[in-house]
Amino acid sequence: MARNPFRSEGEMFKLLGVVIAAAIVIVIGAAINTWVGVAFAVIAVAGVVWWLMQEPTPGAADPAPKLDSGTPPGMHRVLVIAPPGASTAPVPDGATDVVVVVPALATTTEALTGAVDDRRAEAERTALGLTRTLSRDGRNVRGEVGADDPVQAVEDALRVFGADEVLVVGDDAAVEQIRARVAIPVSRA
């Protein structure tokens, strides 16, 4: 796999230097003869591609970082994924902070045509209803609409909410897909 030379400023300047040097060689070759310039251009492009393919990806050899939720002692954060129309979500008694994410599930036709407003409205109503229901126990609860793919919705939510566990309402297939992508406990509610 080729590395991305645009990941850092240093990598970009390194690539820029190689491209400038190749351009100078191509111009000198073209000044000698047009076909020599074409040959130098082909060799230069092949050389840059080969270099990018051979160069190791920075950080590829580093071990994967351990996932730590960073939850302060005495707190238990739970991420709940509920389908549109869900009326209840059983949350553990020890949960102090809860984020309810309702994916805006749209059909393929709706997604392709951009007609997802009704699905988003239904997801917003479900998130609001679950937020009201779950906050009655004195928990800190927040509801939001997520991506149309439940797995993507979980990943997006975990980027901003350091949950200790994920509860999925209803869908066993989604539970397995989410377990394959996150390192925290995932269970079906």
Structural account:
48% of the residues lie in helices and 14% in strands. By secondary structure, it is of the alpha/beta class. The chain folds into 2 domains: 9-54; 77-188, HUPs (Rossmann fold), CATH 3.40.50. A 5-stranded parallel beta sheet has the order 3-2-1-4-5, sandwiched between helices. Helix 6 (172-181) links the parallel strand 4 and strand 5 (186-188). Helix 1 runs antiparallel to helix 2 (34-54).
Helix-strand layout with pairing:
Layout: H1 9-32, H2 34-54, E1 77-81, E2 97-103, H3 108-113, H4 117-135, E3 140-146, H5 150-160, E4 165-168, H6 172-181, E5 186-188
Parallel strand pairs: 1-2, 1-4, 2-3, 4-5
Helix pairs in contact: 1-2, 5-6
Task: Give structural attributes.
single chain, 189 residues, alpha/beta, Rossmann fold, five-stranded parallel sheet, 6 helices, 48% helix
| Number of continuous helical runs | 6
Helix proportion: 40-55%
Structural class category: alpha/beta
Q: What's the total count of β strands? A: 5
Domains counted in the coordinates: how many? 2
At CATH level 3, the topology of the largest domain is Rossmann fold
Strand order of the largest sheet: 3-2-1-4-5
**Global morphology:** elongated
Compute the average pLDDT. Answer: 82
Oligomer: single chain
CATH class value of the largest domain: Alpha Beta
Task: List low-pLDDT spans.
Answer: none
Strand content: 5-15%
* Termini gap: 40 Å
Order of helices and strands: HHEEHHEHEHE
What is the name of the CATH superfamily of the largest domain? HUPs
Give the radius of gyration: 26 Å
CATH architecture assignment of the largest domain: 3-Layer(aba) Sandwich
Sheet bearing the most strands, described? Answer: 5 strands, parallel
